[in-house]
């Protein structure tokens, strides 16, 4: 009787080793090279400021101060402060260090690779799933989120884990993933209903379960813990502080205002489209259009019942963020659309596998991969807003910022005389975790102003700052596409 022999380890895991391991190595290099990178972009608020509150209070209070409390730290109100709580907890165990956040997000990036590999294998052959993973997990926005230790990495990972749990009928995994999806950010909470719709359609179309009250309720059960916690939080917040989106004391009240006039709506719509397409992502949308055209000519179907829930999920998320893009000034950012990009990419590879040969799919993957790498070079002139948190082109910021602060200290420039744009104003303690208070104001009527293309200032303010009769450059720090200029106010300069 012949003994059954197992295939060699490499043979059994070759697709994971060939495609997932290189992605993991890239993530490892990113985490290690940014271990001491200061908090960047919205991460200063969402992670550092909120974590400082819980850390300083030693969790004696689970409520962040309201906008009218006069505290330097406030919550955003519309999202449960889970990332702040988790970061503060890690600081209490490991110490208050920048590397703690980077290692923590590095852990989540490993989970992202593992569960994306599992999810893609549910829809694609092993080799095509490998190519899809290699390309889509090296997209520029995602790489940058890992580099800056952004909680959006947790958001994306939780989405992938939830989808995998739904497809494989693993309710425990789905419920746990939904806790992080819903509680890590308000966008995850809003995406939850579309994940539920995905679950209902998957159960009905793929598993053949008839629609009905019992089916809808059983499908909703994994969502109950997350939404119960979020509902309790938001309900108590509203009772204590009232409605939050348009409060005058809110630092973000202007961002939640509706666009004024037709041109403002058109500008927001264009910005929404640009964020979906830029940094090389246009390749996925263009490929989808090509595949749809080819399928129409061949009179063949691109997707089946199994993939239809994914199409509905992508469509729902697009409509959700389009609504916010057209109803607010604030909610337009590349990182918001990472889930759309990932699921759309999966659908493109599903369609490609049905219409194209393996060699053509490999060529397509390499081209898209190169475009994603080139996406880090998408930097516009200073009057066009750049999603700096979606490109590694921002990395000179870390050394240039340190040079600027050193210059201010060495030249004995009082912080009270200095104003700055986005990324440079506020208490620098929350940016670099140094044990000192260095508060830089937002006003332009100071003796000095920190002007940088990273701040995405308004055209009117840029015109004023570049007027040499009004502002004189004192020192300019620049590297690559990034510059930071310290300007002296000619009106009140000594």
How many DSSP helices?
A: 19
Strand/helix succession:
HHHHHHHHHHHHHHHHHEEHEEHEE
Structural class designation: mainly alpha
Helix content: 55-70%
Mean pLDDT: 91
The count of DSSP E runs of length 2 or more, i.e. the number of strands, is: 6
Radius of gyration: 24 Å
Termini Cα gap: 97 Å
Assign an overall shape: globular
Strand content: 5-15%
Strand order of the largest sheet: 1-4-6-5
Low-confidence stretches: none
Largest sheet: 4 strands, mixed
Description:
The termini are far apart. The protein is globular and about 70 Å long. It is mainly alpha-helical and 494 residues long. α7 runs parallel beside α9, α9 runs antiparallel to α14 and α12 packs antiparallel against α14. The strands form two sheets. The protein has a four-stranded mixed sheet with strand order 1-4-6-5. A two-stranded antiparallel ribbon has the order 2-3. The model has no long low-confidence stretch (mean pLDDT 91).
Write the layout of secondary structure elements.
Elements: H1 9-33, H2 43-57, H3 82-94, H4 98-121, H5 126-136, H6 140-147, H7 152-167, H8 171-184, H9 186-206, H10 213-220, H11 224-241, H12 262-277, H13 282-298, H14 308-327, H15 338-355, H16 358-374, H17 396-410, E1 418-420, E2 426-427, H18 429-432, E3 439-440, E4 448-452, H19 459-465, E5 471-479, E6 482-489
Parallel strand pairs: 1-4
Antiparallel strand pairs: 2-3, 4-6, 5-6
Helix pairs in contact: 1-4, 1-5, 2-3, 4-5, 4-7, 5-15, 5-16, 7-8, 7-9, 8-9, 8-11, 9-10, 9-14, 12-14, 13-15, 14-15
């Amino acid at each position: 009787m012949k003994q059954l022999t197992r295939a060699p380890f490499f043979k059994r895991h070759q697709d994971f080793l060939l495609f997932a391991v290189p992605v993991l190595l890239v993530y490892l290099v990113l985490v290690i090279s940014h271990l001491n990178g200061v908090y960047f972009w919205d991460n200063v608020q969402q992670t550092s400021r909120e974590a400082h509150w819980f850390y300083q209070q030693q969790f004696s209070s689970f409520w962040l101060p309201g906008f009218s409390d006069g505290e330097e730290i406030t919550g955003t109100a519309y999202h449960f402060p889970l990332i702040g709580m988790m970061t503060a907890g890690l600081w209490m165990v490991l110490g208050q260090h920048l590397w703690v956040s980077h290692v923590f997000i590095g852990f989540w990036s490993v989970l992202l690779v593992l569960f994306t590999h599992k999810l893609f294998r549910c829809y694609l052959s092993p080799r095509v799933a490998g190519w899809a993973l290699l390309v889509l997990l090296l997209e520029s926005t995602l790489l940058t989120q890992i580099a800056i230790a952004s909680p959006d990495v947790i958001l994306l990972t939780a989405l992938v884990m939830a989808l995998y749990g739904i497809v494989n009928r693993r309710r425990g995994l789905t419920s746990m993933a939904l806790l992080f999806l819903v509680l890590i950010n308000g966008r995850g909470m809003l995406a939850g209903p579309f994940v539920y719709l995905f679950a209902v359609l998957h159960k009905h179309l793929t598993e053949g379960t008839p629609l009905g009250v019992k089916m809808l309720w059983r499908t909703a059960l994994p969502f109950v813990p997350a939404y119960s916690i979020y509902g309790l939080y938001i309900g108590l917040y509203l009772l204590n502080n009232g409605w939050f989106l348009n409060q005058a004391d809110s630092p973000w009240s202007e961002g939640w205002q509706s666009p004024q006039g037709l041109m403002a709506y058109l500008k927001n719509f264009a910005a929404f489209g640009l964020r979906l397409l830029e940094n090389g992502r246009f390749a996925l949308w263009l490929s989808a259009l090509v595949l749809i055209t080819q399928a129409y000519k061949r009179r063949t179907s691109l997707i089946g019942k199994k993939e239809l829930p994914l199409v509905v999920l992508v469509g729902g998320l697009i409509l959700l963020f389009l609504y916010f893009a057209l109803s607010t000034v604030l909610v337009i950012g590349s990182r918001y659309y990472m889930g759309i990009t990932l699921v759309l990419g999966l659908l493109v590879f599903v369609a490609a596998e049905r219409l194209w040969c393996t060699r053509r799919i490999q060529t397509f993957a390499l081209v898209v991969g190169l475009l994603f790498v080139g996406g880090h070079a998408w930097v516009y002139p200073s009057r066009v807003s750049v999603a700096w948190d979606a490109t590694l082109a921002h990395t000179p910021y870390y050394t240039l910022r340190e040079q600027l602060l050193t210059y201010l200290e060495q030249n004995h420039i009082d912080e009270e005389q200095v104003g700055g744009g986005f990324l440079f104003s506020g208490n620098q303690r929350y940016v670099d975790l140094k044990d000192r208070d260095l508060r830089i104001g937002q006003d332009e009527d100071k003796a000095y102003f920190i002007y940088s293309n990273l701040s995405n200032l308004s055209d009117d303010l840029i015109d004023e700052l570049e007027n040499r009769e009004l502002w004189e450059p004192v020192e300019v720090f620049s590297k690559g596409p990034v510059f930071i200029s310290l300007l002296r106010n000619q009106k009140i300069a000594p």
